[in-house]
């Protein structure tokens, strides 16, 4: 009987151990499933996620890094002291009315001259000006003015004098240099 009792005790202990292992395994799997599958009834809207990322990028692209105040004047490539080429980009021909630059990130931008304190390729937004209600987006591709002043490239000297003139403007730096 001693062997029989030992065998029964062994089977009972083994059964308890097996039942315990099954309970532990099923409990841990349920916890994992609950934690890992909490999103079963939800769908991902990838289009709205892409739009949100694009919106965040655009907001960052058009947020002001610095703001300055200075005079805005206009000039033309055919002015008496101008050679028709830009200081920062001599290969760009502006003699034939080309007053914009196609930037890879910001698209079509007006061209401005600034002092050497503002690096070539800097993108700016001129907020309030005499030329209309919308901001002017421009890129620094020329030199020839001092301080915080800007000189907007125009199709002709007559246009520069009659439309741009000379006014105090506030402008934001959107990108510093290329």
Return the CATH architecture of the largest domain.
Answer: Beta Barrel
Termini separation comes to: 93 Å
CATH class group of the largest domain: Mainly Beta
Can you summarize the main beta sheet?
A: 6 strands, mixed, barrel
Strands, total number: 7
Number of domains: 2
CATH superfamily of the largest domain: RlpA-like domain
Mean pLDDT: 82
Range of strand content: 25-35%
Helix-strand string: HHEEEEEEHE
Helix content: 25-40%
Q: Tell me, briefly, the overall form.
A: rod-shaped
CATH topology of the largest domain: Barwin-like endoglucanases
Low-confidence stretches: 30-34
What topology, given as strand order, has the largest sheet? 1-6-3-5-4-7
Q: What structural class results from the helix and strand content?
A: alpha+beta
Q: Radius of gyration, rounded?
A: 35 Å
Q: Helical element count?
A: 3
Give an overview of the whole structure:
The chain is an alpha+beta fold and 178 residues long. The chain folds into 2 domains: 31 residues; 111 residues, RlpA-like domain (Barwin-like endoglucanases), CATH 2.40.40. The chain has a 6-stranded mixed barrel. Strand 2 and strand 3 form a beta hairpin. It is rod-shaped, with a radius of gyration of 35 Å.
């Amino acid at each position: 009987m001693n062997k029989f009792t030992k065998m029964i005790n062994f089977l009972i202990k083994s059964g308890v151990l097996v039942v315990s292992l099954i309970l532990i395994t099923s409990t841990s799997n349920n916890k994992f499933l609950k934690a890992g599958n909490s999103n079963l009834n939800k769908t991902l809207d990838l289009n709205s996620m892409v739009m949100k990322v694009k919106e965040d990028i655009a907001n960052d692209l058009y947020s002001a890094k610095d703001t300055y105040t200075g005079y805005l004047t206009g000039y033309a490539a055919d002015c008496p002291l101008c050679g028709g080429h830009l200081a920062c980009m001599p290969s760009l021909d502006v003699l034939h009315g080309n007053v914009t630059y196609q930037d890879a990130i910001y698209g079509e931008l007006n061209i401005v001259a600034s002092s050497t304190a503002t690096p070539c390729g800097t993108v700016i937004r001129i907020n309030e000006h005499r030329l209309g209600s919308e901001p002017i987006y421009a890129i620094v591709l020329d030199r020839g003015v001092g301080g915080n002043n800007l000189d907007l490239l125009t199709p002709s000297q007559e246009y520069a004098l009659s439309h741009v003139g000379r006014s105090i403007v506030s402008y934001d730096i959107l990108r510093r240099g290329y």
